Amino acid sequence: MTADRKAKIVIIGGGPAGLAAASSAVKNGTAAEDILIIERDHVLGGILNQCIHNGFGLHTFNEELTGPEYAQRFINIVEEEKVPFLLDTIVVDVSAGSTKIISVMNKTDGFFTIAADAVILAMGCRERPRGALNIPGYRPAGIYTAGTAQRFVNIEGRMPGHEVVILGSGDIGLIMARRMTLEGAKVKVVAELMPYSGGLKRNIVQCLDDFGIPLKLSHTVIDIKGKERVEAVTIAEVGPDRKPVPGTEETYTCDTLLLSCGLIPENELSSQLGVEMNRVTSGPVVNESLETSVPGVFACGNVLHVHDLVDYVSEEATAAGKCAAKYVNAGQWSEVYRTDAESAGKPASETDKHAADIPIEIIARDGVRYTVPSTIHIDRMEDLQKIRFRVGAVYRDASVVIDFNDKVFRSQKKRILAPGEMEQVILKKSDLEAAPDLKTITIRIEEAPKD
Amino acid sequence: MIDVLVIGAGVTGSAIARELSRRQRNVVVLERGLDVCEGTTKANSGIVHAGHDAKPGSMKAKMNVRGSEMMEELSKELDFPYRRNTSLVIGFSDEDGKTLEDLLEQGKENGVKGLEIISGDEARVKEPDLSDKVTCALLCPTGGIVDPFLLNIALAENANTNGVEFRFGQEVTDIKKSGDHFTVTAVDVSAEKTEAAPDNNSGEGIGSEGYGSNAFTTTYEARAVVNAAGVYADVFHNMVSENKLKITARRGEYLLMDRKTQGFVNATIFQCPTKMGKGVLVTPTTHGNLLIGPTSVDIDDKECTATTADGLDTVLEKAGLSAEHIPTRQVITSFAGLRAHEAGGDFILSEADDCQGFFDAAGIESPGLTASPAIGEYMAELINEKYPAPVNKSFDGHRVGIPCMSTASAEERKALVRKNPLYANVVCRCELVTEGEIVDAINRPLGAKTLDGIKRRVRAGMGRCQAGFCTPKQMDILARELGIDQGDIVKSEPGAHMLEGRTK
């Protein structure tokens, strides 16, 4: 198949992940004109454009920025470097192979294809809708995911409603509790199914506590009333089985139900590519280079796993951009990392092959839900490798333990670990090289002994 | 004077209206909702039943078999999605096996072609995801699936282009027979009511077109009335007849799964029927989703389309008997519909015996969707006999649907985009629905005026994010095309406003 256009690196998504990946690819030697960012919205910046609250960039820029300001810093780099981008353009189809063919369309250029050596997946995530939560009741107007409400309020200048119940304590829900309150709405309660919040501690303090909005943990919505527009929402406490406890029902009259019940990486294109997926993250399985199971296809940001802070998205995307640049600059991985024996034209020895092809597996266990990456090729890793993960429950004074081949390598005490906050450990290449016959690295939580 | 006034723009009313438009006459359809397909038709299984379930000799049996025969041709004529995917009625025991034998005989008597009993293993060869516990199955090669929205919309659009007038937001409140005609009063439920608004009936005189109105009430004069009012058909029938009907709303709840589940089953899987209906089925939809349901519970409230925790649990549990590994993680929405169950258990397709000119199409529950084209044909014949009218020579039964970018080939996509660049601007990313398709949906005959109206025509917002991303964009387009403010946009019903004012 001949494509209408060509690029070395196509980046799908012009949000924080895509922008940082582009800027990093340029810094690492890929010519800007060989990169192409494809963005489905009419501006770059992604969902940051509607996040007008502050708190972005503390890690990256050492200052507190709003979402659009944070995005602008990266848009500026992309524009200064003259990285080409397409707006209002949707990727319809991607196919893998040594050359990737990306089918796209937009109003100006119609339907066309792009051939690329590498693809960086940076499509972000979507919110879990009401239907996926199996909440019974009517299906009236007035039920929105928190992000849709955020767009109405912050971009369109419209109010989704005035009396609000929020289900789920994800960060967007918490931010919208404050935002709606500032716009004059009455936020009556935030109900959270789990016994802990899914959002950042700072958002609970600044968005709920400061405004006197109650957060009811272990509660869920069991009925929605109102045939045309929401009229009331009934919540109930849930037991350890997460089923409603009879007799605990409380009905709140309201005209709006906002949902902040989790984010789902948008991996429909990744599936088309045949990328192996991780059932916990709903994102691709990646190695140390943030490369998926399809060679030359990389992933970063919320399409890979849902992050808590955009700063970490940028950091991860920077790594992905660098790896993609290495990959395309050399032609393909085998050129970058082929063993000395191979480059001398001789078949690689079994040991060399072993080192190159069988990566170290990273195992998430005992409270660690997943890790990104999930494998490491020692020869490809940087001197320092970040392993990001989330925990499945709240832990106090527990330890994050790293095992090399089932033997404790390092243990680090943590005052608090919570599902809403992303955690990380950093591995040194020299430590991995020094470990004899290293096959697995396990990351787990060891709870403090009870007294 | 209106020749025939049809109450209800669901699939039954629309099918009848289209058949009536084959003759030269003045036909008006009154619909309470703001769009067609707002009642029973909008929430059902979307199945074209083979026809083995109904009692031989019943109207249900006749209309089912005829409707199923008509569907393929009609789907080409009116350009709506229909697929003969075959169906399997499965059994788990020898007793079920006997039931299937009875169904087979009944089906043969009804004139259903190709029925065959196969073993559980044979069934699993066809459908590998079927439960190991299935011991026997009735294979029905003529079973099919249809998009219920587009069947309804296509029938109504085509009726409209052939001269039938549709009036929306018209809730009929009174029907009186005086001499040789009916006086039908309807209230405009689409209007925003204020306390100052008048609520009397002192409207203008009735004009030559057959109706006159004041602010909220319209009076229609018609020679004949067709009652296709779904769960309310008893209310209207009982306004003019002493032989009372009783229609019970029988609620059915469903769960719908992402198109990612495409191929989980290819045929429609029924369980052995009971007196409450055909049981919980597992079926693909014409668009590749997986649908499971419905429950069957009689309720008092003809408006109660709320789902319940028990109902949804029942669906999951019962569907799990047919196929153990239903991908429930992929559920994207749940909904409930109401069957219009008449106490006698059969379709009532006749002129009221004590009120000449009043024609009932009542008690239209399953297999009503399948039967609708046949019901249209049958009812039109009844009316033609009683009220002959010359053939409408300009009748054109063909309709061309809205192009579908998501299923178009690369070449078709290129051609469409050359014709109209808006076909390249994707609004709904989950279902790949473009601005061009949405604009078409709004500007067609009987075009969409609500978000649900767009959804049912082109599937925008019907996918996995359930309109999370595209709602604001769709509202922008709807407001622009209709020349209204976004604040006036409703989800589906009058009063279902999406927005409540502006920010500070």
Radius of gyration of chain B, in Å, reads 23 Å
Can you count the beta strands of chain B? 23
Structural class of chain A: alpha/beta
Secondary-structure class of chain B: alpha+beta
Q: Tell me the greatest interface.
A: A-B, 55 and 53 residues
The dominant shape of chain B is: globular
CATH architecture of the largest domain in chain B: 3-Layer(bba) Sandwich
**Whole-number total of structural domains of chain B:** 3
Number of extended strands of chain A = 27
pLDDT below 50 for ≥5 consecutive residues: which ranges of chain B? 193-203
Helix-strand blueprint:
The complex is a heterodimer of chains A (451) and B (504).
Chain A: E1 5-12, H1 16-27, E2 35-38, E3 54-56, E4 65-66, H2 67-80, E5 85-86, E6 90-95, E7 100-106, E8 110-121, E9 125-127, E10 143-145, H3 146-156, E11 163-167, H4 171-182, E12 186-192, H5 201-208, E13 215-217, E14 219-225, E15 232-237, E16 250-253, E17 256-259, E18 263-265, H6 268-273, E19 297-299, H7 310-330, H8 333-337, H9 340-343, H10 350-357, E20 360-365, E21 368-372, E22 375-376, E23 384-391, E24 395-404, E25 407-417, E26 423-428, H11 429-434, E27 440-446
Parallel strand pairs in A: 1-2, 1-8, 2-5, 8-19, 10-17, 11-12, 11-17, 12-13, 20-27
Antiparallel strand pairs in A: 3-4, 6-7, 7-8, 9-18, 14-15, 15-16, 20-22, 21-23, 23-26, 24-25, 24-27
Helix pairs in contact in A: 1-2, 1-7, 3-4, 4-5
Chain B: E1 2-7, H1 11-20, E2 27-30, E3 47-48, H2 59-78, E4 82-83, E5 87-91, H3 94-110, E6 116-119, H4 120-126, E7 136-140, E8 144-146, H5 148-161, E9 165-167, E10 170-178, E11 181-188, E12 211-213, E13 217-227, H6 233-240, E14 247-257, E15 268-271, E16 281-284, E17 290-293, E18 297-299, H7 309-322, E19 331-342, E20 348-351, E21 358-362, H8 368-386, H9 410-419, E22 426-428, E23 433-434, H10 435-443, H11 451-458, H12 471-482
Parallel strand pairs in B: 1-2, 1-13, 2-9, 5-15, 13-21
Antiparallel strand pairs in B: 3-8, 4-8, 5-7, 6-7, 10-11, 11-13, 12-13, 14-17, 14-18, 14-19, 16-17, 20-21, 22-23
Helix pairs in contact in B: 1-5, 1-8, 2-8, 10-11, 10-12
